[in-house]
What we know:
- The complex is a heterodimer.
- Chain A contains five helices and four strands; from the N terminus they run E-H-E-E-H-E-H-H-H.
- By secondary structure, chain A is α+β, with helices and mostly antiparallel strands.
- In chain A, the strands form two sheets. Chain A has a two-stranded antiparallel sheet with strand order 1-4.
- Chain B folds into three domains: about 15-225 and about 330-405, 3-Layer(bba) Sandwich (FAD/NAD(P)-binding domain); about 230-330, Alpha-Beta Complex (Flavocytochrome C3, Chain A, domain 1), CATH 3.90.700; about 425-535, Up-down Bundle (Methane Monooxygenase Hydroxylase, Chain G, domain 1), CATH 1.20.58.
- Chain B has helices spanning about 30-40, 75-85, 90-110, 130-145, 205-215, 270-280, 295-300, 305-315, 360-365, 375-395, 425-435, 440-445, 450-470, 475-500, 540-544, and strands at about 5-10, 15-25, 45, 60-65, 125-130, 145-150, 155-160, 165-170, 175-185, 220, 230, 245-250, 285, 320-330, 335-340, 350-355, 405-410, 520-525, 530-535.
- In chain B, strands 1, 2, 3, 6, 7, 8, 9, 16 and 17 form a nine-stranded mixed β-sheet that branches.
- The site of one iron/sulfur cluster has 14 residues of chain A, from helix 1.
Amino acid sequence: MIEIVSATRCVECDICVKVCPANVFDATGGVPVVARQEDCQTCFLCEIYCPTDALYVAEVAEGPTGISEAEVEARHLFGGYARALGWRRGKAGGSQFDPTHRIRVAQ
Amino acid sequence: MPKTARAVRSAPERLHLAADVLVLGGGPSAAWAAVAAAENGATVVLADKGYLGTSGATAPSNTGTWCVPPGDNRHAVVERRWQRTGELADQRWMLRCVDTAYRNLLQLSEWGYPFPSEDDGRLYIANLRGPDYMRFMRRRVLLAGVTVLDHHPALELLSDGDAIVGAAGVGRQVERDWRVDARAVVLATGGCAFRERILGSTGLTGDGYLMAAEAGASLSGMEFTGKYTLAPHGSSLNKGLPFRWASFHREDGSPILGPTGEPLRNGIGDREEEVARALIEGPVYARLDQAEPALQGWLRQGQPNCFVPYDRAGIDPFNDLFRITLRAEGTVRGTGGIDIVSDDCATGVPGLYAAGDAASREIMTGAVSGGGAVNSSWALASGWWAGKGASTHARRRGGKAFRSEVQPLGQAGLRPAASPRADVSAGEVIEAVRNEVTPLDKNFFRSDTGLEKSGERLETLWRDVRDHLQGEGLERIRTREAASIAAAGRWSIAAARYRNESRGMHRRTDLPGKNPAFAHRLVITGVDDFRIAGAPERLAELAS
Ligand SMILES: Cc1cc2nc3c(=O)[nH]c(=O)nc-3n(C[C@H](O)[C@H](O)[C@H](O)COP(=O)(O)OP(=O)(O)OC[C@H]3O[C@@H](n4cnc5c(N)ncnc54)[C@H](O)[C@@H]3O)c2cc1C
Ligand code: SF4
Ligand code: SF4
């Protein structure tokens, strides 16, 4: 579930408010808040749309884990999924390097 | 310049637009329907519950398509796939689908979608990475001049007595009701995931099924909701592919055995059955230890979201044992949905079309799951046909002015038959349905006695929903979702009980094996009082 909106990283662009398919965030005029955490579908998409890697979605879909921002920062987990895909600063990229066709052949 | 929809009346408390075609949904089938209708000269509004680009089952995933290039081989490929469908699919539809899907995949490459290349430099167009694909499609939809309403779930269809003439809903971020008058409506609202916490499931509550049934359309394949997919325990990652190279163990470390008595080394496809049996008995653990190092790298790079749960939980899935689960997938990786009656994806109700997971995929994939290839090609193709069909219908109706006496069709969850009751709440209704349609020992393995009990509970629940469930303002989204989930669960259990045999993902422990008398589709018509009828070759007749 979505757990962290980092106030130090966030540039208050409200992109997450717009793109979250579950309508989890509310705009505040400043840093958005997680208003409906229970609705989060743990899709990690807000993370990759965020231009400053300010969001963290923990791996447990059923409820919050309580992980702290300091731990996410220390383990370099902010932006981890975006980097794995090749997305940067909220911009799409990397699909041309997707090796999934090799997996399908191996299958 | 493409033509755009026009405002009928603008009032701060209500949005009222008019267009030729209204598309409901924001996944691939909605996007292709909107582009096809706009290309056909129609003004188009697309209203999505979520955000076109991130919502639906495709956006968070990485979808393989069923990509079969033209040539002599095509018939053989289709024939081979048909053999696996439990004799319920229709090869004519399968051929049409691969043909149109292939053309649309080429179209994507012409538009500049960044496909990967094979070793010989040719583009590999058979795979679409969800977040990239859907972001790309959003741009194409906007370029086509479509008016996109994000976060505008539809609550109900509108009828003029003869035909569907639009829909109404609520803008959940602007907190304002909306209504779109349209000469044709495409339902591309996806499947029903019964609120299971799987990728993309948040908006997939079967709303389109209920809306279509209220308008008089039929459903088919609703009994085929027995598909489950492996995921790390507690996660949303219902992607089976990495478990193709895994071993499976019980709590005490003993391996789970396959049908031949050897330890299971592949947990997907038919082998989900052994894992399901073990999961009913107790916790199950897996390790992706059958993947060679090169494959490990491709899996990590090609399916990065599959590894997010492991990385965040500090697990090395190739070496460590980790707990797993089977996630229920309802009709998303099941096959049921709105019955399609003609080549343009019409539903039989004038002005109403269906595409993607909202439509029944029984004609494409029968009693087995279309996940992994068929479903995404179906979304590409059926979206295209529905968009063309709806815009052609709109043109035919062009002369007719919108009638003023428009009737909203929404019942359960919006307009209860008796007085609303506070103790009938959306959350509790959904939990009660989940208790019948998600447990492995009720729905993966089914039996007549189990289905009978589930059926009775869902009948009682449905009466409460029909008579007493109601919401105000934004709450209507929830009550309508709960009503849709209750309706889908009730249809599914009833159809499963009717199908007195086992076939594909419909596994009856009391009746193992196929019964030739059931080598046909089951079609459901009606909401409150519904009937189930066999449909032997009805589609083929209509098509000829
Ligand atoms: C994890 C996962 C992996 C998959 N992988 C594959 C694969 O590899 N190959 C394959 O072929 N298939 C795969 N599938 C299936 C494939 O993703 C779906 O078949 C496909 O997304 C269907 O497209 P769609 O547009 O019909 O529905 P969806 O993409 O599910 O979109 C439905 C849309 O309807 C909207 N909606 C719902 N209710 C309303 C309402 N009331 N008003 C307005 N809008 C509404 C939702 O917001 C959503 O935007 C996978 C599915 C999952 C879950
Ligand atoms: S997208 Fe990122 S930067 Fe923008 S408001 Fe959300 S958290 Fe802040
Ligand atoms: S993970 Fe998905 S559902 Fe959850 S907040 Fe992010 S975008 Fe929304």
